[in-house]
Amino acid sequence: MHILLAEDEHGLGEWLSRALAQSGFRVDWVDDGRLAERAALGGDHDALVLDLGLPGRDGHEVLRRLRAAGATLPVLVLTARDSLAERVGTLHEGADDFLPKPFALAELEARLGALIRRSRGRAQPRLACGPLQFDTASRQFTLAGEVLALSPREHGLLRALIVRSGEPMGRAQLLERVFGDEEDVQPAALDVLMHRLRRRLEGSGVHIRTYRGLGHALEPEPQAGAVPGGGGAAL
């Protein structure tokens, strides 16, 4: 899921960008209302998280201009202003949801998921690569219909790969998504996780392929109908 974040408070913007990325979202962050409007109209985002107190063009104006231009992008307004009049007025301007600061990250993620599900007309959006599926509502992986038990870091790595399945991701990107700001993380830790995941996926119909100089990509096996545990090997 691809999120546009419009927030001018740099500490909050940086933290939210990292936190949402670690939860499997792709995040584009801008800190100016004019940039937010341009990105919302010209991008392929699934939702916009919009702060009202933006420089250049405030959030109210951005929202009005987007709706006047016919943009249907779901918008979640994020602001320190929490009066009833503010909430009602913002919803009338075209916002789809409203979350006052301070807020819990889990609630923001849940509200974003609900907005995107409604906009796509699906009750429970899933990401899939061959027989492997990730349910974004329950945050569970299933492989050929069976729940796949993973450690938290294995889960984070596989989630990063399935969000961009078929597209190689570099080591630096994967380390950031799995380990975040943890200090003293050795690059070899990623190799260990990659080895574990490859063993779990072995013979399942989906594998992790390494592209020299580009990174790792989650891909379906060339032959469909493989049975988990059937002895195939991932590259």
Mind explaining what this structure looks like?
- The protein is built from eight helices and eleven strands.
- It folds into two domains: 2-120, 3-Layer(aba) Sandwich (Rossmann fold); 127-220, Arc Repressor Mutant, subunit A (Orthogonal Bundle).
- β3 (47-51), α3 (59-68) and β4 form a beta-alpha-beta unit.
- The chain starts with a strand and ends in a 15-residue tail after the last strand.
- The strands form three sheets. A five-stranded parallel beta sheet has the order 2-1-3-4-5, sandwiched between helices. A four-stranded antiparallel beta sheet has the order 6-7-8-9, with helices on one face.
- It is α/β, with parallel strands linked by helices and 235 residues long.
- The model is unreliable at 224-235 (pLDDT under 50).
Beginning-to-end CA distance, first to last residue: 27 Å
Give the biggest beta sheet. 5 strands, parallel
Structural class: alpha/beta
Looking at the overall shape, the CATH architecture of the largest domain is 3-Layer(aba) Sandwich
Could you report the average pLDDT, rounded to the nearest whole number?
Answer: 83
Name of the CATH superfamily of the largest domain:
Response regulator
Radius of gyration: 20 Å
Q: SSE order, as H and E?
A: EHEHEHEHEHEEEEHHHEE
Which regions have little confidence, pLDDT < 50, spanning 5+ residues? 224-235
Please give the count of helices: 8
| Structure summary, number of beta strands | 11
What fold name stands as the CATH topology of the largest domain?
Rossmann fold
Shape: elongated
Q: What is the CATH C-level name of the largest domain? A: Alpha Beta
**Share of helix among residues?**
40-55%
Q: Per DSSP, what share of the residues sits in E-state strands of 2 or more residues?
A: 15-25%
Strand arrangement, largest sheet? 2-1-3-4-5
Number of domains: 2
InterPro entries: CheY-like_superfamily, OmpR/PhoB-type_DNA-bd, Sig_transdc_resp-reg_receiver, WalR-like, WH-like_DNA-bd_sf
Domain OmpR/PhoB-type: 124-220
Keywords: DNA-binding, Phosphoprotein, Transcription, Transcription regulation, Two-component regulatory system
GO molecular function: phosphorelay response regulator activity; transcription cis-regulatory region binding
